Amino acid sequence: MTDLSTIRSRRETRDRWLLLTPALVILTLAAMGPLLIVVIYSFLTPGDYGGVEWQFSWTSWFNVVAERDFFTEELKLADAHLTVLWRSVKLSLLTVILSFLVGFPTAYFIATRPAHKRDMWMLLIMIPFWTNLLIRTFAIMQLIRNHGTINMILLGLGIVDEPVQMLYTEFSLLVGMTYVYLPLMILPVYASMERLDFNLVEAGYDLYATRFQVLRRVIFPLVKPGVVAGSILVFVPCLGAYVTPRVLGGGKQLMLGNLIDLQFGQLRNWPLGAALSLTLLAVVMVALVFYVRAIGREGESDV
Amino acid sequence: MIEIEGITKTFGEGASAFTALDDVSITIQSNEFFTLLGPSGCGKTTLLRTIAGFLDPTRGKLALDGEDLLSRPPYQRPVNTVFQSYALFPHMTVAENIAFGLEMLKKPKAQIKATVDEMLDLVQMAPMADRKTAQISGGQQQRVALARALAPRPKVLLLDEPLSALDFKLRKEMQLELKRLQHETGITFVFVTHDQEEALTMSDRIAVMNLGTIRQIGGPRDIYDHPAERFVADFIGDTNFLQAELLDTTGEAARIRLGSGAETTARAAPGGPGAGGQVTVAVRPEHAAITGAGGALLPGTLQEVVYFGTDTHYHVDLDCGGRFVVRVQNQPGHMQPREVGARVGIDFAAGIGQVLKD
Ligand SMILES: Nc1ncnc2c1ncn2[C@@H]1O[C@H](COP(=O)(O)OP(=O)(O)OP(=O)(O)O)[C@@H](O)[C@H]1O
Ligand SMILES: [Mg+2]
After folding, report:
1. Candidates 3.40.50.300, 1.10.286.20, 3.40.50.1820, 3.30.565.10; correct CATH number of B2-230?
2. Residue A35's domain spans which residues?
3. Which of A4, A94, A137, A150 is the most exposed place for a label (fewest CB within 10 A)?
4. % chain A with pLDDT above 70
């Protein structure tokens, strides 16, 4: 009796695992596998013509933050890497802020339109998003390059004497990334804004709150989950952005994505590339944990 | 004192234009409990929102204590609203909700705290001051909404069907509580309801509305006993309508000849026709008595007797056409057993009937 039931439960367990196998295989191969390879590569020695040699080494991790002078063997900080890392974090944060400043009023505008017109507005927001990333980036380039639309207008109106250098600056990256990732901010903010009970807005006005106070004390706290989601959705791809800095930064304004690409390409240092990729991942995770913690704590004090 | 003068509100334009308020004029006294009563869609909320400042009227004037209100945004009007849906801020506690208006008015911290405590006591919500608004019951939310609107001491409190979501017993309690609050605070209440009983028991004066217009303004007794027109008589309470011939009018008394040929006096319609022609006369069921057929104003045949516990309804088919209902209060040992099909008469005193304008 006991034997029989143990056997049966054992068989059930085995069947369950069998059924789970395809999912597990896919998860292992598609998600864990590549990551594992990256982790392993970061601890190997670079091959002469790319690839890796199977020899354990800490060097690439060390090289993420520091470098040994070629002649004097002196240790110093890897300025280039840190500059790029700092620029990536800074520009990503600025992009989040800028896309919030543009996206929040946009979402508010759409959410306050009559219901049957909102879909049309959302569609207008989404159409550029469905266009190829490269094409959108080149469109921005056309706008801000020295002989581009904006400079032509400024020159034509006599506001400036020579073209304003906007392309290949951090400014151009900021504009480009904000444009590219703006829908990722608008979408979640709009979603929570649409659910907002506009009676509450009226209640705010009724209780002597000015427009700005209603925004700050009533609307913003209630759509905060959407803002948090939008910020994460914008921040994460910004940090790893590749195409935008490549096109609009013109090789001068590298971001982490470009640095990683360089290691796997021209510089043929795969282990360093792997270590940098993992650094990027770590930065994202640390940023998210901080963000979620900060928001969560505020949420708790609310309850 | 609120002066509403010729307020008209039209939504939309051209063919789809809809006039929700049509030339509405009301003067509401300070510290009055004033009720807007009318069927769904008659424009009660629209009028309230116009006073609060959420809607701009198409035409008309609005003044509070002699000062024009229309030129001021809602946050500069000393008027607070208890919303139909309460509209409590879900991200704040009960106490924070009540403090909101005071904070916006930049009152000193100590004063805010004192007022909030006072309000919490007033609506008996002190034990739940730190709860989120989602964690309290409907009736409690309603009281918080009331406290929140009262805390800044507005000159006028607008209440948009604040009791409609409550069950019967709680509703009765809150009606008394509202009356008490109005009495204690001395604030002018403008109360919206489509429940006529609620309007009659609570109000100092009532404005009956229909299709965006004011049909009649008056005290509860006035409105009930002397409805000016068919709509008001019909909307408030039960009424018998009788066709009659208007013979002549002297002051408030109108001499009429009923369909049975009997003559009596009724109250004349203010601003109605003086003499001649057919009019409608309204008689409340409880204002008439049932008697023997001989010598009665209106003879007829008893068709139905319905027992209601506190009173009995007699449905009589009149000889001159139409049906008349008489409501008689039941008194123990004082029953008048009447058989269905019996010949009966209906009597009412002179001056009881009300001639209607239409
Ligand atoms: N924004 C608007 N646009 C168009 N029509 C409107 C608008 N607001 C209200 N109305 C119309 O105006 C009329 C009056 O509406 P209102 O909300 O004042 O009615 P109410 O008397 O409060 O009714 P209820 O008892 O159902 O709350 C209704 O027919 C309504 O459809
Ligand atoms: Mg309404």
Report:
1. 3.40.50.300
2. 16-75
3. A4
4. 96
CB contact under 8 A, A209 and B105: no
Please say if the pLDDT value at position A300 is more than 60: no
* Alpha carbons B132 and B96: distance in angstroms, whole number: 9
Q: How far apart are the first and last CA of chain B?
A: 32
What's the rounded mean pLDDT across residues A59-78?
81
Cβ–Cβ gap A205/B148 under 8 Å: no
Nearest neighbour of A302 by CB, restricted to B54, B91, B148: B91
> Distance, in angstroms, between B132 CA and closest chain A CA?
7
Q: And the tokens for A94?
A: 């600025």
CA of B207 to the centre of ligand 2 (A): 15
Predicted structure pTM score: 0.81
Please tell me the CATH superfamily of domain B239-356, with its number. Answer: Nucleic acid-binding proteins (2.40.50.140)
Residue with CA nearest ligand 1 atom 24: B40
Q: Tell me the C-alpha distance between B307 and B81, whole Å.
A: 43
Q: Which ligand is nearest to the CA of B38?
A: 1
Q: Do A203 and B87 touch (CB under 8 A)?
A: yes
pLDDT mean over B71-95: 94
**Per-residue confidence band for A71, with pLDDT thresholds at 50, 70 and 90:** confident
Give the torsion through C-alpha atoms of B13, B19, B20, B22, to 10 deg. 140
Q: How many domains in chain A?
A: 2
Q: What's the confidence (pLDDT) of residue B195?
A: 87
Instruction: Give the up-direction half-sphere exposure of residue B312: CA atoms within 13 A in the CB hemisphere.
Output: 16
pLDDT in tens, A36-61: 999 999 999 988 887 888 888 888 89
What is the predicted pLDDT for the residue at A303?
Answer: 36
* Model ipTM value: 0.82
Q: What DSSP string describes B156-182?
A: EEEEESTTTTS-HHHHHHHHHHHHHHH
**Mean model confidence pLDDT for chain B:** 91
CB pairs under 8 A between A and B: 62
pLDDT tens figures, B182-200: 988 889 999 999 888 899 9
Query: What confidence tens digit (pLDDT) does each residue in B298-336 have?
Result: 999 999 999 888 889 999 999 988 899 999 988 877 666
Dihedral angle at the C-alpha atoms of A187, A188, A190, A196, nearest 10 degrees? 160
Beta-carbon contacts of residue A131 (< 8 Å; ≥ 6 apart): none
Q: Which residues of A touch B89 (CB under 8 A)?
A: 200, 203-204, 218
Specify burial of residue B250 (Cβ count, 10 A radius: 0-12, 13-18, 19+): exposed
Determine the distance separating the centroid of ligand 1 and the alpha carbon of A195, expressed in angstroms: 22
- Strand order across the beta sheet in which B213-218 lies: B79-82, B156-160, B188-193, B33-37, B205-210, B213-218
Q: Which of A75, A109, A143 is the last residue of a domain?
A: A75
Which of A202, A208, A210 has the CB atom closest to B87's CB atom? A202
